[in-house]
């Protein structure tokens, strides 16, 4: 059986603000839609499921995020995820300039949880609290042969 990662889905409170954040970081919008109906109820397991969605893609064409804003049933607000909680943890991106990526994030009111770390001279990385409380890891390879690997 062949298997590949298709995308990571993230429910957000403000679709447009979240799209703006990720497109400023370099992702592109592949498409948008509004989904509802019996097929959506069945697929998601929620009666009356109705959401606005957007599919974004990384510049290399390999990574995709599906963002969705629920119209019905109403979205449930939760406390922002902590790095050590069980479940969906974070979304990670390799960047070529972490300082530039952090400046872009800051323009959206999104800041590191603590700061920028140096992982054994291999990566500079930081966890940022993004839109809707999403944890976003930004990692810059410090050694050219490590570009594209995830920390």
From TrEMBL:
Q: From the UniProt record, which GO molecular function terms apply?
A: dioxygenase activity; lyase activity; metal ion binding; methylmalonyl-CoA epimerase activity
What's in the keyword line of the UniProt record? Dioxygenase, Lyase, Metal-binding, Oxidoreductase
**PANTHER family, A to Z:** BLR5325 PROTEIN, METHYLMALONYL-COA EPIMERASE
This chain's protein is named: Catechol 2,3-dioxygenase-like lactoylglutathione lyase family enzyme
Record has Cell membrane as a keyword: no
* InterPro entries in the cross-refs: Glyas_Bleomycin-R_OHBP_Dase, Glyas_Fos-R_dOase_dom, MMCE/EMCE_epimerase, VOC_core
Domain VOC, first and last residues per copy: 4-141
* CDD domains attached to this UniProt entry: VOC_like (cd08353)
- What's the source species for this entry? Plantibacter flavus
Q: Which residues form a coiled coil?
A: none
| One Gene Ontology biological process | L-methylmalonyl-CoA metabolic process
Question: Is Ribonucleoprotein one of the keywords UniProt gives this record?
Answer: no
Gene3D superfamilies (alphabetical): 2,3-Dihydroxybiphenyl 1,2-Dioxygenase, domain 1
